[in-house]
């Protein structure tokens, strides 16, 4: 374990990187925690999965709507100030729940509309925040440190998802209630706001509001898309990042149903699905730290897509077995224990594979994109992830009920195989290039 953390020591010794990393951890924990509290609030107000789908749409639409201009803004405006004010504004949105929950307690429809509105606004801010953070990162560390820095950032993202969704937010709801939970998440944003204040400046360009400037802005937007379309390693990396983001979102959606309908546990016990994946991600950190520079990225990414496909296939088989068979009451406890162990053994390699794919693909974008284009390229990435993942997110909860969880997991395995086959074909045609 000591050797694992030693891989991160060089980048963590950089004060600016350390502040940005801690701010990212707090911001993402708050973002995921707010999602959980919102789900609890919507469930209490409506008890309908359709309303949860609408909230997901409110979160997924802004990256699609604003990505065309967000990248240009990130490239034209100092990234430091985008990061600072993004945390501040989202803190204000989180704190606003404390007051509105009391004011609209007797008006559930108005409260529901407010949840959608705040979700939309918070996601809109994130459309600028996320590309700014990723574009700022290469300015804080040396190029040879990028893969380690990305590895740490990606593990932090997974850790924040686990902590926010499955530990901190559930505990906060039980101890502090809904208003207190929202207040805690707002506090996390405020701490992140303070941390990034001392980030070094980066040079942005003065904003010109003339018609000529607007035309130039749209030209710059097109330049980002053209750069992605004409660079094979770039669009392949974005395809892989989009797949990983979509798989994680869908897995998060079906996890409560998997916990209750397959394992026979409570929906909030979905931690049994995610926690082993976190272990797999931790192991992936060791592998990347020690061997990441020795294995061609193309072949490693293909292998990890295969690992993910096998993992989803095993989960589908486990799901089919435990949902299709009628188990006598006296055997329920033993069967649940067996199923939980099998799920853990299947999910650990899934977390391992998805983490490595995500880290290598993100590092490719940062290494192969000129600094002047990074904001626009990262924005294309986030827009594609949101656009492609929007429809599956809207229908995943409903389809899991209609076709069943086993079928849903089976098609996730097929999607991994399809992208893996494309990656293998690409690596075969371009063996001299490594991404």
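^ structure tokens above, recovered residues below v
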């Amino acid at each position: 374990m000591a050797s694992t953390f030693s891989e991160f020591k060089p980048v963590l010794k950089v004060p600016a990187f350390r502040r940005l990393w801690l701010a990212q951890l707090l911001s993402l924990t708050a973002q995921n925690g707010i999602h959980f509290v919102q789900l609890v609030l919507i469930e209490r107000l409506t008890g309908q999965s359709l309303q949860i789908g609408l909230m997901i749409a409110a979160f997924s639409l802004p990256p699609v709507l604003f990505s065309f201009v967000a990248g240009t803004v990130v490239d034209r405006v100092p990234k430091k100030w985008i990061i600072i004010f993004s945390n501040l504004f989202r803190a204000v949105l989180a704190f606003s729940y404390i007051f509105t929950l009391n004011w609209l307690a007797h008006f559930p429809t108005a409260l529901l509309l407010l949840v959608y509105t705040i979700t939309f606004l918070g996601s809109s801010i994130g459309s600028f925040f996320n590309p700014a953070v990723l574009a700022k990162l290469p300015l804080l560390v040396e190029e040879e440190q990028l893969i380690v820095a990305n590895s740490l950032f990606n593990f932090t993202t997974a850790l924040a998802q686990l902590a926010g969704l499955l530990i901190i937010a559930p505990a906060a709801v039980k101890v502090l209630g809904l208003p207190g939970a929202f207040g805690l998440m707002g506090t996390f944003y405020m701490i992140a706001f303070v941390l990034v204040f001392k980030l070094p400046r980066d040079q942005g360009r003065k904003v010109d509001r003339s018609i000529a400037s607007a035309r130039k802005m749209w030209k710059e937007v097109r330049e980002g898309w053209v750069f992605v379309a004409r660079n094979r390693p770039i669009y392949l990396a974005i395809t892989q990042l989009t797949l990983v983001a979509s798989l994680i979102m869908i897995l998060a959606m079906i996890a409560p149903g998997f916990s209750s309908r397959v394992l026979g546990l409570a929906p909030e016990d979905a931690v049994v699905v995610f926690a082993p994946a976190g272990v797999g991600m931790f192991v992936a950190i060791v592998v990347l730290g020690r061997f990441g520079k020795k294995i061609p990225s193309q072949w490693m990414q293909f292998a990890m897509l295969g690992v993910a496909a096998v993992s989803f296939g095993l989960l589908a088989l486990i799901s089919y077995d435990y949902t299709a068979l009628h188990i006598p009451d006296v055997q329920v406890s033993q069967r649940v224990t067996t199923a939980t162990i099998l799920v853990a053994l299947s999910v650990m390699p899934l977390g391992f594979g998805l983490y490595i794919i995500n880290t290598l693909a993100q590092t490719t974008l940062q290494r192969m994109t000129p600094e002047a284009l990074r904001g626009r390229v990262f924005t294309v990435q986030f827009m594609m992830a949101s656009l492609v993942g929007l429809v599956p997110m809207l229908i995943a909860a409903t389809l899991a009920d209609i076709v069943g969880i086993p079928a849903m997991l089976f098609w996730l395995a097929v999607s991994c195989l399809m992208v893996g086959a494309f990656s293998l074909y690409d690596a075969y045609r371009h063996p001299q290039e490594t991404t």
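The chain is about 85% helix and 0% strand.
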